[in-house]
Structure formats: structure tokens, C-alpha cells
């Protein structure tokens, strides 16, 4: 019974994307990537990639993944990310970043993360994961808009 209910919810989720053909194409492209599931691809396609962005900075700003500076006289510090954007999409991107490291370890982004976090503590790894999420958002945006596969990424068996 539970599996039938889950299938019904997933079908309803997929039909919601089918109402707009452009969003449906982007959702399908995202779902083809190994490590990006149906729920994450639907949320990103609807919440993020259904909009048009002029640049990668605008995309990162919409997601709240831009640096927040503190300027006071001669003191200039970075206070972390602004968190002013779409928090739901930002959380999904962080989750996809963890999955990306697990299912796409051969990609340039996963190797970039590995090089910067080697011999580092948990805090640095978490901070760098947010940086990876920002880079991943840009790469996925480029992928859904142009069809250019992220460097080293593989498609899942069902999408290949």
C-alpha cells in the first residue's frame, strides 16, 4: 500500500513538471545524471532552472550562495554566505553535493573538493561543501541550458 502511495506521489510530481515543456526537459536532463534523483531534479528544475539568469553570479545570488562581506573602516572580513536566496533550493544543492562526491568521484568538481579538503578537519570540509554546491549549481545550470555535460560526469544507466 505504501509503495502504491509513493508511486502515485512520484507520478503527480512528474506530471507537474510536464505542464511546462521547457521545465520538463530540464528535469529529465538533471535526472539523467548519476547521483541526482527524481525529487531533487524536480525541485531544481521548478525552483531554480525555470528562471533565466544573466550570469553565474546571478544564479548564486538567487540561491544565497554569495559571500557576505563585513566592511568597517580598515577591517574587511568575509562572514560566510549571504543565505538571502531560496533556502529550499540551497538545501537541495547541498544534498546533491554530498551525493555528487559519492556517485561522481571522477569529475573535476569532486577532485577539486578532494584536493582542497585533504588533511582538513570537519569544519573545513563543510565550508568547502558549500563552495562545491555553488560550483555545482553553475555547472548544472550550464548543463540544463546548453546540454554540455559536466567535466567527467557520467549518466545513470536509465538515462544512458
Kindly describe this structure:
This protein is mainly alpha-helical and 160 residues long. The protein is 62% helix and 8% strand. It is built from seven helices and two strands, in the order H-H-H-H-E-E-H-H-H. A two-stranded antiparallel ribbon has the order 1-2. Strand 1 and strand 2 form a beta hairpin. Helix 5 packs across helix 7. The chain is globular and about 60 Å long. The mean pLDDT is 86.
Strands, helices and their partners?
Layout: H1 2-18, H2 21-32, H3 38-47, H4 56-63, E1 67-72, E2 75-81, H5 87-103, H6 108-117, H7 122-146
Antiparallel strand pairs: 1-2
Low-confidence stretches: none
Specify the number of helices.
7
> Whole-Å distance between the termini?
31 Å
Q: Please indicate the percent range of residues in DSSP E strands (runs of 2 or more).
A: 5-15%
- Mean pLDDT equals 86
As a percent range, the share of helical residues equals 55-70%
Biggest β-sheet strands, sense, barrel: 2 strands, antiparallel
Q: What's the quaternary structure here? A: single chain
- Order of strands in the sheet with most strands: 1-2
Amino acid at each position: 500500500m505504501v509503495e502504491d502511495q509513493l508511486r502515485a506521489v512520484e507520478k503527480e510530481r512528474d506530471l507537474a513538471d510536464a505542464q511546462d515543456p521547457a521545465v520538463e526537459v530540464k528535469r529529465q536532463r538533471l535526472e539523467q545524471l548519476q547521483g541526482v534523483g527524481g525529487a531533487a531534479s524536480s525541485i531544481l528544475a521548478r525552483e531554480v532552472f525555470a528562471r533565466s539568469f544573466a550570469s553565474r553570479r546571478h544564479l548564486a545570488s538567487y540561491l544565497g550562495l554569495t559571500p557576505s562581506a563585513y566592511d568597517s573602516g580598515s577591517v574587511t572580513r568575509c562572514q560566510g554566505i549571504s543565505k538571502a536566496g531560496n533556502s529550499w533550493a540551497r538545501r537541495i544543492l547541498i544534498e546533491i553535493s554530498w551525493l555528487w562526491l559519492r556517485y561522481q568521484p571522477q569529475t573535476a568538481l569532486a577532485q577539486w573538493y578532494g584536493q582542497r579538503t585533504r588533511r582538513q578537519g570537519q569544519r573545513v570540509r563543510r565550508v568547502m561543501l558549500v563552495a562545491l554546491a555553488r560550483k555545482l549549481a553553475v555547472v548544472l545550470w550550464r548543463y540544463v541550458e546548453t546540454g554540455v555535460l559536466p567535466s567527467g560526469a557520467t549518466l545513470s544507466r536509465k538515462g544512458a
